[in-house]
Amino acid sequence: MIIDLANTTTRKIQDALTATRHRMGGPATGKVLTLIVVTDEAAQYDAIRASTEAAREHPCRILGVIARGGQSESRFDAEVRVGETGPGETVLLRMYGQLSAHADSVVLPLLVPDAPVVTWWPGTAPATPGDEALGALAQRRVTDAAGGGDPLGTLKRLAGGYQPGDTDFAWARITPWRSLLAAALDQAHDDITGAKIEGEGENPSGALLGGWLSQRLGVPAEVVPSSGPGITSVRMFTKGGEIAVTRPDGRVATLSRPGQPDRQVALHRRSTTELLAEELRRLDPDEVYREAVQRYAKGEEVSAEPAPAATPAPKPKAKKS
Question: What is the DSSP string of 50-64?
């Protein structure tokens, strides 16, 4: 059921949600969290669809926030959807005028009482999600560095503004990679002296994977471009040979180890719904992500610093005759 409310109030939205639940015979509670989706008109369809699909695993109230701005009077329209494609509730909020800059005042009364809050920016990520008004309402803040025009620059800014509860889809995308690499290293192997990650250019997931490997193994991890799609290989160097995971097609990977036959492993590229569902499973701070993103940013700063200019040796003074 879809209810359109023009120039409305939060009280009218609450009444519409309650009336719709009673009409459909749904429970008054049962939602485990509130998901705030901060998006724009162009991206709202895909973002809300992914949120609705993820809500099948995590029943929640989805609040889509679209700031329209403009010079018009401060007001907002709402589109209430209940029982359309999942067990949760979806409220799409379009805000006009100066109200666009104060979306938290509209969202706050619509949060599910006594339930965690997750805020997701599917497009360009703010530099410091925790300082954003809608980010301050949340225990978990999800960004997507790949959603903007400067993925690696965004990742560095996120590292500098990190606060407990921050995470990024670039991190969730490499969960299968990290699991496979950790399993490969559980077996006996020679000491690892270095690592190399090959991935599509400006790939924030490859950068995070390099930061994670460098942090965990204590060795340099080089990230080099490839033709893609996504991350195409990870190679770890030992005296006995390479431990490598290669995935040229984005679907099936080959695990190679010195002295052992190659093994095929399913390693498909994950959809937005899968990434969001994974992030909604964990609401506590992810310290491993913090270490990886800050290790990447630190490595970038070190490599970007120019080498200090050599100080010329002082000329010997001429002796007086």
Answer: HHHHHTTTS-EEEEE
**CA–CA gap between residue 197 and residue 156 (Å, rounded):** 18
Instruction: Give domain limits for the chain.
Output: 2-168, 175-269
DSSP state, residue 147? G
- Pairing type for strands 2-5 and 75-82 reads antiparallel
Q: Check pLDDT > 80 for residue 57.
A: yes
The CATH-assigned architecture of domain 2-168 is 3-Layer(aba) Sandwich (3.40)
> Which two structure tokens, joined as six digits, stand for 230?
């996504």
User: What DSSP character marks residue 218?
Assistant: -
Its pTM stands at 0.87
Give the bridge partners for 33, in sequence order. 60
Instruction: List helix spans (H) across the chain.
Output: 10-24, 44-54, 103-107, 133-136, 151-160, 169-172, 175-185, 204-217, 272-281, 287-304
Q: What local confidence, expressed as pLDDT, does residue 29 receive?
A: 55
Contact partners, residue 278, CB within 8 Å, separation at least 6: 172, 175
Local structure of residue 236 (DSSP, 8 states): E
Identify the band that residue 31 occupies on the pLDDT scale cut at 50, 70 and 90: confident
Distance of alpha carbon 248 from alpha carbon 269, whole angstroms? 11
Q: What is the pLDDT of residues 5-24, one digit of tens each?
A: 999 999 999 999 888 877 76
DSSP assignment of 74-127: SEEEEEEEESSSSSSEEEEEEEEGGGGGGHHHHHGGGSPTTS-EEEE-SSSPPS
Q: What angle do CA 93, 94, 97 make, to 5 degrees?
A: 135
CA gap 102, 76 in Å, rounded: 11
CB atoms within 10 A of CB 310: 6
